[in-house]
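Recap from last week: sequence in, structure out.
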Amino acid sequence: MARPARDEEAARALRPRIRPGKPTLIADSKVGQLLALLDRSGVPQQLEELLRGRPGPAGVRPRTVLAGLLLASYFTGRATIADAWRILHFRLEPRARGWLGIPEQPPATARERIAASRRLYRGWDRITTVLDPARCDRRSRLPQGAADAYADAWAVPSGRKAALRLQMLANQLVLTPVRLAHQGGYLRGWRGDVGVDATAIPVLAHPDSDRTGTASVEITAGWHYSGGSDTGTFGYSASFVVAAHTRRPQDTAGKATAYPQMCVGLILNTPTVRTGPNAVTALTQLSELGLPTGTCAADRAYTGCAPENFQIPARRLGYRLALDYKVEDRGQQGSWKGACSSTARWPAPTCPPCSPRPPKAPMTTLCACSRRNCRARSPSESRSSSRPNRDRTPEARYGCTVQPPGRRPR
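Predicted structure tokens:
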């Protein structure tokens, strides 16, 4: 029995719309490449384990949902369920449909299209339900107080555990091509040098409104301010870890290297939240692949982190740190056998006594003045003696025979 015309009109209004024109088909080879990437990451298998035994209709399998989102992101630049539905049901060839469990024929009527889209949405809802520790209706704006309560659920131990699991699953997709490149020998020339940076990921949702007292539908989003900019971007911060090039003095600019400069880590989080631990999480997963560890270069967002949140864990993983400091933040950086380093240099000493200089005082300290051959100089003599010397010995440069740590000057 045919449906009434009114029901058909309502069905057409509900379904995801088909774009005008004949859709172009996607080659099986491209679908196979993305499926191989997805299967080798292990993410669909882990989601199947998490969803096992949960009540309710299953909908589409997680492997099919994630494959549709990957195809939508690759061919349209938007990872939305509507685009994934259009690609899975109207742009795949019969062989690729069999790989993903999609019916051979596209849905013909409006009712069939609604049923197909709802099965895909149901499969996506099951994934987000098991991964979201504070699930709420994100289709409409909530009062600010209610949204804050949902956002606070991510800060408790159970919420942190769920967030870490979500970050690890997402980073597994990023590390899969890195693992394949390592197995294929494409990273032979890489010394393990990486660069870490937090990049803004904008969202389409509007930010919180003080006028209406409502929060954004992206409850965990915030304002990301790039270095030196007063204009913020509403969205998330992505901590990228990128394989860095090491240019030698004899190398020319733009010289091709023996390895690809690729992304080797990605952690998404709220801006200014766990900046250091997010980078450590990505570096930890990278180190588990057995790749070398070299120099880790980071900007001031990571320089300002507490040492136990970034610097110490990164060094324990084997990385040497190259950090950026503001001029006013430079000062006493450490000591070695009584000689103190200030502004990343080993200053000429002043004796006696060997004590830290007061703030904003001229750099005239420090030295273990009880040592032999300590030739103390006044501040003016220290400045005049900083010109190059022929022998370039530590005594002529620093005014003392105490050798600073590091490689001996040649």
